Structure formats: C-alpha cells, structure tokens
C-alpha cells in the first residue's frame, strides 16, 4: 500500500543538502510529490519540506535511517506519516472560531481531527455536542488556575491531542503549562499584532481610529501575545465602525486566520525560525 510521508528540516546552509535528502529518498524507493525550501540568508539556515510516497517503509524505519544524514548536516528534522493531527479546541464564550473549525473539520478541509472541546464556560456546549464531540467544562479563575491546568494536561493525554487550539479562550496559560506544551498550542489574537495586545483590542483600535483591523494566529509562549506568528488577516474599516462593529467585522478575520494556521500546522507546513516561522503554503 502506498503511504504518504512528510519530512521537514532546518540546518546550517551549505552545498549538498537537497542532494543528500533526495538521494536518501530515492535509495529508499520513495517518490517526491511536493518540495519546498527557503534559504534564510540572515541566519544562514536552510528550511525544507518534502512530501513523498513510499510503498515499503514505515515512519519509524525512515526516521531511524535518516538520522545519519541529519547528523552529517546538523539538521533538526521531523518525519510524519499520514496519521492525522489530533486537536483539542479550547473556547470561552465567543463561538465564531469554533464554528468555523467545526465546519472545516466536518468538510474534511481542516487537515486534522478534532478530538474534543474544552471550555471555562458552558455557553458553547450545544455547538460542540451538535457536532458529535465531547465538551468538557473546566472552570478557570485566579483561584483555580493550577487545578484547571492540571485537568487540561490530563485531557491532552486522555484525548491523545497533538495540538491545542485556543479558539478565543480568554485565560492566560501559565509559564509551566506553556513549557509542557511548547510548540503545540496555537492561539488566535483578535488584533493585527504587534498592535493592541491584551483582552480588549477592538476598544483600543476604536480609540486609536485605525483604518484596518485584523487577527493574528500564533504559537503560544509565556509572553502574552508574543509567540511566533503563523498567519494574519486584515480587513478595511473606517470612522463609522464603533467597537461593536469592529468586533463584528473582526470575527471573520479571526476565523479565517485561525483555520488557515491550524490546517498549515496539521499539514506540517509551519517551521519555527527564531521568534518567527517559515510557512510552506
Ligand atoms: N501564555 C499565554 N496564554 C494565552 C495567550 C498567550 O499569548 N500566551 N493568549 C490568550 C488569548 N488572548 C489574546 O489573544 C488573551 C486572553 C485573555 C487575556 C486576559 O487578560 N485574560 C484575563 C481574564 C479575562 C477574562 O476572564 O475574561 C486573565 O487571564 O486574567 C489576555 C489575552 C490565551 N492565553
């Protein structure tokens, strides 16, 4: 049976990297179906994503055997087979991002499998359960944050989640939780970062009189709204938009930016690069 694999890597820039990768794949009877690379001349690093098929190998064998190439070229690499990324979606009260993720998941265009929905409020239980998903209520206040975060880690294990998506989840994750889930949490911030950080960006945008509003999907780090950006979306507004209207038009930008970022992450198209990302769209 022909199986599908994806290889991503980054390493110091030098000659012979692509030749080494493609020779390894040919020697193992693999057929490249998509290849993208980026030479970062600022950091002198090469970033590469290759999708390929192979009828004989499995991901553990390929990973073990590719290690020799990786060592020779000082590569950071990952290899995946076609097992879909399992996603835990976290929400608070706003449902527009969850609604968009559920639609794309059911349409088969999200790139991953939603395993369950977790929330610090009950508001979105009907939407999740209507989609046939478990909905887990985990209250999270200043007094219960440690208990809530221990429960969240249990749920990540219980649902075997590879990725946690904060789909307008309005609680700040602790440094400890961010460390335990490093690179596995994507948040949608409802502004065009680095502008208007925090919980109420549309009011800040209104006070500033901006002509565009936007949204930013980024990996979560302990530094609020500072994580590596994956995708951004903007929409034109004008003086007639009050905070309510800005919030309304912003929902579209949030849902679009987040769903794209989740799909690209699940398709292994996003490679960290310093405090940024390389995205092989
Ligand atoms: N460690 C991180 N945790 C979270 C991030 C992040 O970037 N790093 N992003 C937030 C989402 N968010 C903005 O995008 C955000 C959410 C909440 C707040 C905030 O100040 N929350 C208050 C409580 C507000 C409430 O209860 O409604 C708080 O936590 O005290 C700021 C920004 C998700 N988590």
From TrEMBL:
Domain ACT intervals: 6-86
Pfam family, one: Formyl_trans_N
EC number: 3.5.1.10
Catalytic machinery residues: 225
Pathway(s) it belongs to: Purine metabolism; IMP biosynthesis via de novo pathway; formate from 10-formyl-5,6,7,8-tetrahydrofolate: step 1/1
Reaction equation(s) it catalyzes: (6R)-10-formyltetrahydrofolate + H2O = (6S)-5,6,7,8-tetrahydrofolate + formate + H(+)
CDD domains: ACT_F4HF-DF, FMT_core_Formyl-FH4-Hydrolase_C
Keywords of this entry: Hydrolase, One-carbon metabolism, Purine biosynthesis
Domain of life: Bacteria
One term of GO molecular function: formyltetrahydrofolate deformylase activity
Record InterPro entries: ACT-like_dom_sf (IPR045865), ACT_dom (IPR002912), Formyl-FH4-Hydrolase_C (IPR041729), Formyl_transf_N (IPR002376), Formyl_transf_N_sf (IPR036477), PurU (IPR004810), PurU_ACT (IPR044074)
Hydrolase keyword on record: yes
Record carries keyword Hydrolase: yes
Function according to Swiss-Prot or TrEMBL: Catalyzes the hydrolysis of 10-formyltetrahydrofolate (formyl-FH4) to formate and tetrahydrofolate (FH4).
Similarity section: Belongs to the PurU family.
HAMAP family documented for this protein: PurU
Annotated protein name in UniProt: Formyltetrahydrofolate deformylase
Gene (name only): purU
């Amino acid at each position: 049976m022909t199986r599908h694999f994806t290889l991503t890597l980054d390493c110091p820039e030098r000659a012979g990297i692509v030749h080494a990768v493609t020779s390894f794949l040919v020697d193992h009877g693999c057929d490249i179906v998509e290849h993208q690379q980026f030479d970062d001349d600022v950091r002198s690093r090469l970033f590469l994503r290759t999708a390929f098929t192979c009828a004989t190998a499995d991901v553990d064998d390929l990973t073990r055997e590719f290690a020799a190439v990786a060592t020779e070229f000082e590569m950071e690499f990952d290899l995946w087979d076609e097992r879909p990324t399992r996603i835990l979606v976290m929400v608070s009260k706003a449902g527009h991002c969850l609604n968009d993720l559920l639609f794309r998941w059911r349409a088969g265009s999200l790139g991953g499998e939603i395993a369950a929905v977790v929330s610090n409020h009950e508001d979105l239980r009907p939407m999740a359960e209507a989609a046939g998903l478990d909905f887990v209520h985990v209250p999270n206040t200043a007094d219960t944050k440690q208990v809530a975060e221990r429960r969240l880690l249990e749920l990540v294990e219980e649902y075997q989640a590879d990725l946690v998506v904060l789909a307008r989840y309005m609680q700040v994750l602790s440094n400890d939780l961010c460390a335990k889930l490093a690179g596995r949490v994507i948040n949608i911030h409802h502004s065009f970062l680095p502008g208007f950080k925090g919980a109420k960006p549309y009011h800040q945008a209104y006070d500033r009189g901006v002509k565009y509003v936007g949204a930013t999907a980024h990996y979560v780090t302990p530094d609020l709204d500072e994580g590596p950006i994956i995708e951004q979306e903007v929409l034109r507004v004008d003086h007639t938009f009050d905070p309510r209207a800005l919030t309304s038009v912003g929902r579209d930008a949030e849902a679009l930016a987040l769903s794209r970022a989740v799909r690209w992450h699940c398709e292994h198209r996003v490679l960290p690069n310093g405090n940024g990302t390389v995205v092989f769209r």
